[in-house]
Known about the structure:
Layout: H1 10-21, H2 26-33, H3 37-46, E1 48-52, E2 59-63, H4 65-79
Antiparallel strand pairs: 1-2
Helix pairs in contact: 1-4, 2-3, 3-4
Amino acid sequence: MGKFYRHLTWDDRIKIEALLKIKCSQSEIARILGVNRSTICRELKRGAYIRLDGQTYEEYQAYSPDIAERKYREHLEAKCP
Length: 81
């Protein structure tokens, strides 16, 4: 039997954001969602943006499920006109 692949849903992206806030690793997130760790890695790249810390004024990379979902939808539209 072949491998099973599935797309991440909006709810999955919300869960990823919540799990990142409580400092879960990519492997833990993948296990919880039932996907491969590489799926989580690609998703984090898709939803990455630079955020400014309001107290230290330092920039750091954060994850946004909104950005990830928008990029996913744009990719679908470009793929299937």
